[in-house]
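User: These chains co-purify. Model them together.
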Amino acid sequence: MSTATAARSDASTGMKGLGGKYLTFTLGDEDYGVGILKVREIIGMMEITAVPHTPPYVKGVINLRGRVIPVIELRIKFGLEPREYDERTCIIVVEVQGASETVQVGMIVDSVSEVLAIPDEDIEPPPAFGASGLDSANILGMGKVKGRVKILLDVDRVVSREELQQFASM
Amino acid sequence: MAAQENAIQAELEQMALKIVLVEPGDLATVGELLEHLERLLTSPEIGSRSRLRSMGAVLWQVLDQIILATLDDSAENYAHLGEAIGVMQEAARQEDDADDRQVAAFCEVLRKTGFAVPDAEVAAGTVPLPKNVGADEATDAQEEESAAAGEGEAASSASEPSSAAPPEGETDATQAPGAAAASPASDNAEEEEEPIVQDPQEFMQDMDLLSGFVEEAMEHLETIEVNVLELENSPGDPEIINNIFRPFHTIKGVSGFLNLKAINKLAHATENLLDDVRNGVRAMDSDVIDVVLSVGDYLKAMIDNLREVIAQGPEAYKNFDIREYTRRIKAIREGKPSESSPAAPAPAPAPADTAASAPPAAPAAAAAPAPSAAPAPGKPAAPAPPASARASVSGKKVDASIKVNIEKLDALVNAVGELVIMQSLVQENPHIQAIVDPKLTRDFSQLARITSELQKTAMSMRMVPIRQTFQKMIRLVRDLSKKSGKIVNLVMEGEDTEIDRNMVDSIYDPLVHMIRNSVDHGVQPPEERQKLGKPPAGTVALRAYQKGGNMVIEIEDDGNGLNTEKIRQKAIERGLIQPDDNLSEHELNNLIFLPGFSTADKITDVSGRGVGMDVVKKAVEKLRGKVEVYSEPGKGSLFVIKLPLTLAIIDGIVVRVGSERYIIQTIAIKESLKPTREQYQTVCERGEAILLRDHLVPIIRLYQTFDIEPSYTDPCEAILVVVEHEGQQRALMVDELLGKQEVVIKSLGGLLTEIPGVAGGTILGDGRVGLILDLAGLFAAGGSRAGSGAGDQVEAESEMF
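Assistant: Joint model of the two components:
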């Protein structure tokens, strides 16, 4: 119980204020969501240039209309089995807070589902999985929609600069 | 004539418009008013209308005093000025000069501002022109006698305090009468020995104005310095003297308005000194130049302090003691007038008419005690002929320009770069190429032309002439040669060569360093030069030109040249080469760019110890450039810096490793080769290298560093690209060379910075991203990966080439 409260106060705005529109997507059998205001665009898979000395989940960089942006593979990031890309594989381009400015990052997901409005009262704090080793820091909360659970991601944490930087300096 | 009459009317109309808009505190607009007025007063047709001209001159004085804050900068006063301009407009519309009624109305309305209007002179049309107005028009010559006649009364009627001054050769006697009255404070200022202590609150009322002043003043000071130095080359050029005078005048005016007492006083004193020069009372000799330069430096320090005050609050304020400078100026003004006889205007042919048109100068010179023993060394030795001065004025037509945020400009350049790539992508698309349609072909070539034109324009927008950077060197050479007791002429060529704006700042330090080096170690002292049969004055040439997509900067001196033997000994001493190494003279000379190399025999404070040319090389390489030295013993040395024209685009070789492509900047590449078995060497089975003309060059297997699957793992099947960075060479092992390409450098997005071995990315011709290799990172990583013991050894050996 105490962990749940801690997580509740951890989320800066509390579970209240998390309600809103989410872009939902799938990774394997699980449904995820990211706040729609974070999403810049959704593009199909494209050729990715690998960048050395980066964590394995960083697939490389792509050319987004003349801008070079990094792309991460969410499956690897979350410890899921990698799988072949297919025609449903997408890159969701999100905007996150960098060191001094916002930067764009692509996230490879299995498929994009829909945009859902999830009200405050349908969002629960992330459960504590305890010993399973799953880090719930990336999770804003759990949205319940029509009997299904959507895992709402905190993208600023998912692609934290510190983590990448640490790796680069290793 | 009718058209010219309209010119007067047009200027007045502009002024009427401006005066309505002007608000208290808006000095910029007042400045614009003065500009219009100046144009009006210098227009040829005004000569026949002495009353109108006098009105203008009075108006000038009033505006001047508003700027100096002697008259109120209030809405009422501007209303009065508006009425006065109305009267002038009325007068300008009629055939004849202003009539009595208009003169009376004009004087009456202006008197309301609190200014002592000299009615009689306006009526007589004898108010002298303000001294700042370019008064050397032919028509003025006719007027100048009457103006001079009226001047005495003008001075006494308008300025009581300064009438006491002339006996001492006091500052304000040379001012226009109005301005003299405007600054009674500065009259006794030179008597008082108290330093000016001021509470910053006194000028911190309007921070916007203050920071505006700081910005502008800095620009003005730059202008001053550049012009002062230019003056050394063409002494007595009245246009240049004016260019120095004006910024001081502006600084004085605005600082007075902002209540910055010390700056105001110092600028004022300097302005007075320069005014003497303008009026031909004294020559612009080295004393004056020195003091103006040092005042400029001091003002910079004061204004820098203001900047701190703006940033950190009033506690940061320092009270600067300007007495030393004002005293020095005073001493120069009193001690060494170039002319002791009252016939001041006569001796200086070029500025003669300027002097005559500012009559108060004459009595001042006459009154000055003037020990004629001082014959003023650099007295108008070569006064520029007025004709050429004129020509240069009209030749300097300023292009209209706007300030653009640099980020916007960068974004534009980036976008255009992409456009060019996209255009070729589309054009090379096989589906499109399959279309056989002459119109499409035509349209494509038209599109290609437009995009490349657009790219050229966008690139050129970021380019600035290197002139400013070069001009800073004039001062440097001057100071250095003074300090070292050498005579050095700086010759500059190609100052108009354009360079990427982003590079300007970075190239400054290396240039300073090399110029220092040339003056300090290159050019010999005069006696030694004469012994060698050279002219006593050394020459340092600074050249810039474009060559084959590169910007080339050359620094040449006619001094000692490099002592190749000494370099050799030192290099052996430092373990940089082996005694039996067989190096060409050129190779030996270029050893000076290796870290920690210095051949200076004596240590001077000019180029201190240990700061070698390696600093230069590093800075130049950071700009993706190259530096080399050519030297002929006894004749001099030539340093050549080659830089890319822009930082945004590099010339690169695209290489393939496995399925990845990387770009190596062309300038770093020495050669590429397929090594033979004999050339391949391993060190302790860990480090590996190839033997290249007796030098061991360590190999970096890119596929290992970047952890990718290569086509070849045997160095003798793959291709080795030998690259050089900071004097070290490495052979990069790649699968294939794909070709040469100009690429636009991009960051890898904010999250992926500082990736070892990767400098950035770029969009390749097929739209994919290619990574640009960072040699410094690769070299460092390559060293650590080669295993500790062997790695160090290879490292050490590699420095021996």
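Confidence is low (pLDDT under 50) at residues 1-14 of chain A.
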